[in-house]
């Protein structure tokens, strides 16, 4: 009779651990989803700003067609990307194209002095900072989730419940550019 109670107690503890692990992993998964939605909102704002920026630059540097086309192509690719890995890759291409577009202002002093361009460039800079913060929050949520599915006792149940490792919002090839110390020349 006491063996039956012990077995029942072990089963109850295992069921409690499974429910507890499942609920924690669901909460962590929801946090990852919410964090990616936050990144997505910031990226959509940037996508909406780009046509205005391109139109402003067109007026001053219309013969820079290749750069303008690259920005539009990268924007369209970024808007159609799905999931963190695809979005990350597409956004890295878009960031590079935008960098080349902003660099055009150095070659065109009239463009650099244009109030509309300055406002759009300022908004873009502000959005880039917000995107960076959103990416950090997303990557933190992914790190917590990935750690959660690998820790005991959740690791025993994670695979059974369909919880799999999630990808970080990676900087990709631009990581070396971001991590490189800026060069100061006098």
From TrEMBL:
It is found in: Membrane. It is a single-pass membrane protein. It comes from the Bacteria. Keywords: Membrane, Transmembrane, Transmembrane helix. InterPro entries: LemA-like_dom_sf, MamQ_LemA. Coiled coil: none annotated. Belongs to the LemA family. This is LemA family protein.
């Amino acid at each position: 009779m006491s063996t039956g109670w012990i077995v029942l107690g072990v089963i109850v503890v295992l069921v409690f651990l499974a429910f507890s692990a499942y609920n924690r992993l669901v909460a962590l998964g929801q946090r990852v989803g919410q964090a990616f939605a936050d990144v997505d909102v910031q990226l959509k704002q940037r996508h909406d700003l780009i046509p205005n920026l391109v139109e402003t630059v067109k007026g001053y540097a219309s013969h820079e067609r290749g750069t303008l086309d690259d920005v539009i192509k990268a924007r369209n690719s970024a808007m159609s990307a799905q999931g963190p890995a695809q979005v990350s890759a597409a956004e890295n291409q878009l960031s590079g194209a935008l960098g080349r577009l902003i660099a055009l202002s150095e070659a065109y002093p009239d463009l650099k002095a244009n109030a509309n361009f300055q406002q759009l460039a300022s908004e873009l800079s502000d959005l880039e900072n917000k995107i960076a913060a959103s990416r950090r929050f997303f990557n933190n949520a992914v790190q917590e989730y990935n750690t959660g599915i690998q820790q005991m006792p959740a690791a025993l149940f994670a695979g059974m419940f369909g919880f799999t490792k999630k990808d970080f919002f990676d900087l990709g090839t631009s990581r070396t550019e971001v991590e490189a110390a800026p060069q100061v020349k006098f």
